[in-house]
Amino acid sequence: MDGRGPVGPGIIELPGLTNPDDEAPVTSIDKARTDVQEAIRELLAIVDCAEPTAAASAEPRVWSGLLVLGRALMAMFFARQAARWRVGRSYDVDGRRFAVVGTETVQVGTRFGKVILEQPVGMQQQDLRAARDWPLRRELRLPAGFTMLVVTTMARLCAQMAFASARDLARHLFEWAPSPRAVLRMVDAVG
User: Fold this and answer.
1) Residues 98, 89: Cα–Cα separation, whole Å
2) Per-residue pLDDT tens for 147-188?
3) Which ranges of the chain does DSSP label H, i.e. alpha helix?
4) Which residues contact 16 (CB under 8 A, 6 or more apart)?
5) What is the pLDDT of residues 49-76, one digit of tens each?
6) Are 170 and 160 in contact (CB under 8 A)?
7) Residue boundaries of the structural domains of the chain
8) Distance from C-alpha of 33 to C-alpha of 148, rounded to nearest angstrom
9) What predicted TM-score, i.e. pTM, was given to this entire model?
């Protein structure tokens, strides 16, 4: 197997992306729920501290914790949505019949940061050499691996300031920013 495509119906090997933070993709809704609960516990530990703490110390930790919570909630949302797309499920796109043949690991840029998603991969049932389809990405309207909120936010920022400044502001606010190339694609897509 060369790792680049279908071997036969129901068998697929696809190269996946790796998370730079070495996080495993959230494939279980129960695991995602546990991550959400842990993020809430960590936030409560910050704000429920009896020790004297300056607001300037607590506020950035709370903000970072809220971003962690947001990523955990989005991972749970994506896991729940992906669970509906089981291997073997058939569906139609533009009059062509597809079936889910496996999953691939991708990163989705959200307002809270990048979230790892095990997304279903579909192939045309009559032509295993045809291009792959990503039904969940289309269903959730995730253009180029980003939520629409990220795309529109970056496009708005770029309309008001230079691209580099827009990316710097996004990095400051959200603790991450899309690559320069991704920002150019977003601005081109939005217009």
Assistant:
1) 8
2) 999 999 999 999 999 999 999 999 999 999 999 999 999 988
3) 29-47, 55-82, 135-139, 148-160, 163-174, 180-190
4) 104, 105, 106
5) 999 999 999 999 999 999 999 999 999 9
6) no
7) 6-140, 148-190
8) 24
9) 0.81
